[in-house]
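Morning - magnesium ion inputs below, output right after.
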Amino acid sequence: MRDLLGGKGANLAEMNLIGVPVPPGFTITTEVCRLYNEQGREAVVAMIKEDVKKSIQHIENLTGNKFNDPSNPQLVSVRSGAPVSMPGMMDTVLNLGINDAVADTLAQKSGNPRFAWDSYRRFVQMYGDVVLGMKPTNKTDIDPFEAIIEDVKAKKGVKFDTELDVDDLKELVARFKAAVKENTGKDFPTDAYDQLWGAIYAVFDSWNNDRAILYRRMNQIPEEYGTAVNVQAMVYGNMGNNSATGVCFSRDAGTGENLFNGEYLINAQGEDVVAGVRTPQQIMTEGSRRWAQLQGISEEERAAKYPSLEEAMPECAAQLVDIQQKLENHYHDMQDMEFTIQDGKLWLLQTRNGKRTGAAMVKIAMDLLREGAIDEKTVIKRMEPGKLDELLHPVFDKAAVKKAKVMAKGLPASPGAATGQIVFFADDAEEWASRKKKVIMVRLETSPEDLRGMSVAQGILTARGGMTSHAAVVARGMGKCCVSGAGEIKVDYKARTVMMGEKTYKEGDWISINGSTGEVYDGLVATVDADLSGDFAAVMNLAEKYSKMDVYTNADSPRDASVARKLGAHGIGLCRTEHMFFEGDRIKAMREMIIAPDEPSRRIALGKLLPLQRGDFEGIFEAMDGYEVTIRLLDPPLHEFVPHQLETMRELAEQTGRTLEEVKLVCDGLEEFNPMLGHRGCRLGNTYPEITEMQARAIIEAALNVKAKGVDVHPKIMVPLIGVKAEIQMQADIINATAQKVFAERGDTVAYKVGTMIEIPRAALVADQIAQVVDFFSFGTNDLTQMTFGYSRDDAGKFLAVYKNLGILKVDPFEVLDQEGVGQLVEMATRKGRATKPELNVGICGEHGGEPSSVKFCASLGMNYVSCSPYRVPIARLAAAQAAVEE
Ligand code: ADP
Ligand code: MG
Ligand code: MG
């Protein structure tokens, strides 16, 4: 149903079925949108024209009014609605069907001419922007209609739209139409059906507008889905002081607290609440009091100026409380609802599962579990693994925050801590972020055009708008820290400054914002690590309970290892040894080894490295007491380790007692045209067996040393870049011989495993042979992707972005495992390997090990584990659990 009707249409139909008051309407399916994109307008009109007419008649029968009839007019809204919610991304037109004659009738019938002309001017504006393409595309241009409104307000000396009278509104309509004529060269359409078709086309077209495309990319929503079009009888929240419109949530979308909350505006329509034009009021009195406290508004002022809906329209509020409960019970999830009150009668216009922060996602799911509304498996399915990331991020240090200077206060729109440099425009945010700068976007309010900027900013601060403003909703969806509606700050886009208190901040100045309290601080405020107990731990325990595949981590140091362990890693799947050679003076011994002219001198240099490596391994083994530690032998080309500057070459010459010329000759000789495909990986160990020998010795000795201290140690030795069976055979022989030697020397033994990375396509093809030699496979999907696609990871940036834009590639294959191509190699190698050796242990250690869809793919192949960077461990654990419960 949802696929055909879109989320909005399906839920409107469902609400109607369970007895929630919904204005009558109909839905044109997403199938028609696909057809529209393929075959164009005429084909679609020919196909659905009669159906649309009939459906309009159905609305007419229910309301007793007539569409396109000035004597008894019915107005409708035309709304987009995709199968998955894309809030604010596509377009909607309200009050459609109005013209001069209709406005006169509406004025007469309602006895409220202001309402009629307010609806009319809104329609012309929306239709002009959405259907006739009058919306400005440049960030500094202002909407031509807004410019006219500002002009009329200024002439009159008023601040709010509500202060305009009927004559002002008539003037607006006239000037709007003139602007349309001037811009488009055509008269504004007066026939209701002409208007309707224009709006239908516009909704279909909006599926392919820039912000919708971007949103789909960011949220991995398929291009093919298409949007449905909902045509619905209008209900009017702008009919006077007994009418209102609002947005509400059955639970707190920021914190997850089980508290019905929301905002509304009297005598308003549609997006007024979220647009941040007037200050919205709270629905519940409890929420209203909390809000007033945050804003520093006294109880008297609050009750007089900003009463809750509970206080202002108690019957509607009570009905709304019942409905939100009913909807939550029906959908078993937190609901985000839109409603309108027309002359004291409540109508629901939308419900959907609400967007929420990572913290709210975890709390709401666990609360629903405790309430008995959902079961454990549903908790796991409900998690968006990527969102857990937010919970792992730092929060402000308590002591630092106490000392911090509060410059302004707004609403705690999306929790978290953010510190960064001020920027005012989305494109600047992008540009600064691309230079690795941390930015906070400061705006009067945000709109969908700001999406790109928001996605790269640390946090968002707005002067206007409430808890349901665009900035707040989008930030919560992204899990970004946001403070909205900080009324005292003065943003000047032209000068690129923002004034807070007495201080004027320029673009580039540092501020910190607290999305949990709404406070804005001067400068940089220190942060501390997040708390991983409570509901987060509970969800992780559930993941543990259901997943069948283990999660390891990629860690090169005891510190990383213990962080990952705290986050739930059950072993190390990749410990790179090369980083260890750069620390302090070690590089000197390493260079000495590399330029050694013969084996004996190489052995001397290796002898210096041995104790250093052994010490590193001991630390890691201790941190991973009880768990497997997979150590990869030296992998990068030697050229990466030698000096490139004459000065350092000279030092090396002195250190080793050789001439500068000799050193230079060796270093230059190591240079390769294509180092990634050059002398690296097991090719090093096979040409210089003493390197493998030293590393194997360091690993085994370290294992014996910590074993003697009582550590439960499980070393796995991993050989990189195998393509031919003989390569791994030779390495395994060296490792095993060395281990036997050390065991004999020490009079003690320790169990160890020898395995290989599968990262060269050839290795995948002959995996059955390779499995004869090893205990385990670990897919190095970074190199495997690089070599399967033939894309250099270091150079692909240039064309991958273009490829994604052109749709040649849907995602970056270095981020998301290419299941179709590279995945075949992974599947085949796993199958062939296990055919040779059924007990073969199989895992993956590329970047993909922490990417949810790739983790699920690995689980589907029956891998033993995935290994990822420490902070992605919880994400991988959840994805693994999801794979198990979705099976
Ligand atoms: P979006 O998908 O961006 O939320 P909507 O289609 O929900 O867009 O519509 C935008 C606004 O117009 C919402 O506030 C909605 O409640 C309001 N609206 C839509 N249809 C009607 C209607 N028939 N009567 C009154 N208000 C409506
Ligand atoms: Mg909506
Ligand atoms: Mg590799």
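Note: The pocket of magnesium ion (ligand 2) is lined by residues 338, 350 (CB under 6 Å).

O.
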